[in-house]
């Protein structure tokens, strides 16, 4: 599967109407909706803020007042055609005074998303099992050595009263087995499944 590495924005003008497309990497519907809400506030003076998203827990689109099927659907179709997942697209339109007609709107919203996809850095993503290992500061060297020797990838580190790493394995190997010899010293917990950039 593919997604975009980071947020990207681009702008096109069609018959005096301004179309601003913003793409965001998003993992869940909740994340998508938060971004859409934020952009609705940011562009509250716009004529329309049309949206489309495809995330791990669902997909959706909204024409936001444009004639049915002329905005959100063409937008999500571009995302599907490019096989993009975990992504949210928002196209903000400022009406320029010239009506585009249904066909013109479909083309404008599609083109807007296509241009943004063209600007974006596309990355491969895969679903991984995420584990958390927790240990005392005195065990940092041991934990780091095991992570390195077993070619595990650390996606997050947390240093509080103890040290916690969130780690994944390339072949989704059994991480609990790797650390079982450190029983009590390095605690391993399964966290969740996550779509991450391919490692």
Plain-language structure description:
With 199 residues, the chain is α+β, with helices and mostly antiparallel strands. The chain folds into two domains: 2-120, Ribosomal Protein S5, domain 2; 126-197, Alpha-Beta Plaits, CATH 3.30.70.240. Helices cover 29% and strands 41% of the residues. The chain contains five helices and ten strands; from the N terminus they run E-E-E-H-E-E-H-E-H-E-H-E-E-H-E. It has helices at residues 29-42, 72-81, 101-119, 140-149, 175-179, and strands spanning 2-4, 8-14, 17-25, 48-55, 58-62, 87-94, 122-135, 152-159, 163-169, 186-197. Strands 1, 7, 8, 9 and 10 form a five-stranded antiparallel sheet that branches. Strand 4 (48-55) and strand 5 form a beta hairpin. Helix 2 packs parallel to helix 3. The longest helix has 19 residues, at 101-119. The chain is elongated, with a radius of gyration of 22 Å. It starts with a strand and ends with a strand.
In short:
With 199 residues, the chain is of the alpha+beta class. The chain has helices at residues 29-42, 72-81, 101-119, 140-149, 175-179; strands at 2-4, 8-14, 17-25, 48-55, 58-62, 87-94, 122-135, 152-159, 163-169, 186-197. It has 5 helices and 10 strands, in the order βββαββαβαβαββαβ.
